[in-house]
Automatic annotation (TrEMBL):
This is Uncharacterized protein. The lineage of its organism: Eukaryota, Viridiplantae, Streptophyta, Embryophyta, Tracheophyta. PANTHER family: OS06G0652100 PROTEIN, TROVE DOMAIN-CONTAINING PROTEIN. It holds the Pfam family DUF7788. It comes from the Eukaryota. Residues 389-596 form the DUF7788 domain.
Length: 610
């Protein structure tokens, strides 16, 4: 792409230098960290001695969109000290937007800024993962925050900085761009490479060879020269320097720095961004020219589709409506083809939905297929001995589960209760328990799957349940039925939309005391001790059932608590958690869920460098 010196004309002023802010100081405002990358000794000790016992697990389970930035940094510091590679994977798990993470954009930026301060080479060496877990535009956004501070997006816009001497411009690029976004030496990459420049160079090769379908979105995400974002980050200058270094053109050798910068920025615009953006057929280009009838909707990214949908309907309703219909039909066809090529196990809620269909002729095939899927699932779990001799307490009250999208969580609650009742042996088989203050076991009626599911769905439930009554009922039933310790209930599963403290009824004995305070209750560990004593009294001291309370509507970030006083709590629902639940006999260890979340191939490419 070299050009003769005589062809270069200065048509405008060179870009001014930019003062570089201190993202680190902003990121650490109010920090308890004392030195290096390790949080204060007291903070680390506290985090490492928490209920989880594993700092990485604490970071995975406790960080969500509502986590204060400083708390996130403290959790990350403790996790990194414990296991740097796992902590790195969990950082990118925060960003995962393609069913490979939490999709927490701000949390990821907070963690990445912490890495920039304490582990910049590791951050640089994993820049290619930005696009794999999130979007290419995450990179310039992170650079913006590195320069202007972690809270740059939360403060009022400041006046544009005044032009500065040339040496400050060089310092800004070298300090904040090259060292941070220049790829550090890693396996198979002996020299530093610039992420955006490398991608643009590759896209240009595809442009020249006519392989337009292989062109990525880097040109779209790259800020335009002289845009406000570019003026804030100097990113275009850094990219232009990488694409057109002085040694690439003899005319650059003795050229003044300002003129060289101006020319390579202009080449970046004309020779790189303009042709690549034209190849991408970006909707913004057609929209700015009012060429709505020529806009190729099939090239519009999902995020742009969401933003501009109302404009497409306003200016080109006919074509846009037809596109949506064709797109929906093609997606359904592709989904059907993929399902035939690689059939996936049906989801429990889908089976329950089909089993519960009315007896219309149009539903016969779906109900028959669902019945076969149900029998296959039950036989598979029974063959493994999973969920055998367990008890289900189902909260089908008109609460949060009913109000979930398409009553999905209610179907899961009903389905799990039905599944557990089928997998148990007498006298526990074919019975479920209503979520109520009294012991309320119900025997499922003889009839079709639909009748049994409706029976569970219509059970009379209350706002709270009495766990002590459930234990007493189990003992009574076991004694009267002559149950041996081997056939005792192993686990009591409670499916609800509440956490344990809110779901439990206060002990009746306390209410009888004159000094009873209705705002307090006997701690569960005291109740559990009494339960264990009662089981010991009747000869079942070694088989006290474990309690697993699954708050299906709780926040996923709450994760799982360690088993305490016989109780394990699961929070939130995901298909992966359901898979682990069924594969692990209903008891999912916290580490299992964390390791499963970062087991994908994309996580194995991440590397710790410093």
């Amino acid at each position: 792409m070299s050009s003769a010196a005589g062809d270069h004309l200065i048509l405008g002023p060179p870009v001014a230098g930019l003062p570089v802010g201190n993202a680190s100081s902003s990121a650490e405002a109010g920090s308890t960290s004392t030195a290096g990358h390790v949080a204060g000794a007291e903070v680390v000790e506290h985090l490492q001695s928490g209920a989880f016992g594993n700092p990485c697990l604490s970071f995975f389970a406790l960080v969500d969109r509502d986590t204060p930035p400083q708390h996130l940094r403290d959790l990350l510091a403790a996790a990194w000290e414990h296991d740097a590679l796992t902590a790195l994977k969990l950082v990118f798990n925060l960003r995962g937007v393609r069913d490979n993470g939490k999709g927490d954009r701000e949390g990821f930026y907070t963690a990445a800024l912490w890495m920039h301060q304490y582990h910049p080479r590791t951050l640089a060496g994993n820049l290619s993962a930005f696009a794999e877990f999130g979007y290419i535009k995450d990179f310039p956004e992170l650079l913006y925050r590195i320069i202007h501070g972690a809270d740059a997006r939360k403060v009022q816009p400041q006046p544009q900085p005044q032009p500065q001497p040339d040496h400050l411009l060089a310092d800004a690029v070298n300090l904040e761009t090259e060292d941070v976004v220049g790829e550090a030496p890693v396996k198979g990459s002996p020299s530093k490479k610039f992420l955006c420049g490398q991608n643009l160079r590759s896209d240009l090769e595809h442009h020249k060879s006519g392989k337009l379908s292989k062109i990525g979105l880097t040109a779209k995400c790259c800020p335009s020269p002289d845009s406000s974002f570019d003026q804030s980050t100097l990113l275009c200058e850094a990219i232009a320097r990488g694409l057109f270094p002085r040694e690439s053109d003899a005319s650059y050798a003795n050229m003044k720095e300002k003129h060289y910068i101006f020319l390579v920025r202009r080449r970046l615009r004309r020779e790189v961004l303009v042709p690549l953006r034209k190849d991408l057929e970006l909707p913004e280009i057609y929209m700015s020219k009012n060429q709505w009838s020529d806009l190729p909707y099939e090239r519009v990214a999902s995020e742009a589709m969401r933003i501009y949908e109302h404009l497409f309907k306003k200016h080109d309703e006919g074509r846009f409506t037809a596109f949506l219909k064709d797109h929906k039909d093609s997606r359904e066809a592709a989904k059907h083809k993929a399902k035939k090529a690689a059939p996936q196990p049906p989801l429990l809620q889908d089976i329950i939905t089909s089993l519960g269909l009315a007896s219309h002729a149009s539903n016969i095939k779906r109900r028959e297929d669902a019945a076969q899927q149900w029998r296959t699932l039950v036989d598979h779990l029974r063959g493994k001995g999973s969920l055998c001799n367990c008890m289900a307490v189902c909260d089908v009250n008109k609460g949060g589960l009913v109000k979930s999208e398409g009553q999905k969580l209610l179907k899961i609650c009903v389905g799990l209760g039905f599944l557990i009742s089928e997998l148990s042996s007498p006298p526990w088989t074919n019975s479920v328990h209503a979520f109520a203050s009294n012991y309320f076991p119900l025997v499922l009626p003889v009839g079709s799957y639909r009748e049994k599911l409706n029976f569970i769905r219509q059970m009379p439930c209350e706002e709270r349940f009495n766990l002590k009554k459930v234990f007493e009922g189990i003992i009574t039933r076991a004694v009267t039925s002559g149950v041996t310790p081997d056939n005792m209930v192993k686990t009591i599963f409670i499916f609800t939309d509440k956490f344990f403290e809110k779901a439990s009824v206060r002990p009746v004995e306390l209410i009888e005391h004159e000094d009873f305070n209705p705002l307090s209750s006997r701690p569960w560990h005291e109740e559990y001790r009494r339960v264990c004593e009662e089981f010991k009294r009747v000869g079942f001291q070694d088989v006290v059932p474990q309690i697993v309370l699954w708050n299906l509507k709780g926040p996923r970030s709450a994760g799982l608590t360690a088993t305490k006083d016989g109780v394990m709590t699961l929070s939130g629902y995901s298909d992966e958690l359901m898979r682990l639940f069924l594969e692990n006999n209903g008891v999912v260890e916290p580490e299992d869920e964390m390791l499963d979340a970062i087991a994908g191939d994309e996580y194995q490419k991440l590397q710790v460098i410093d």
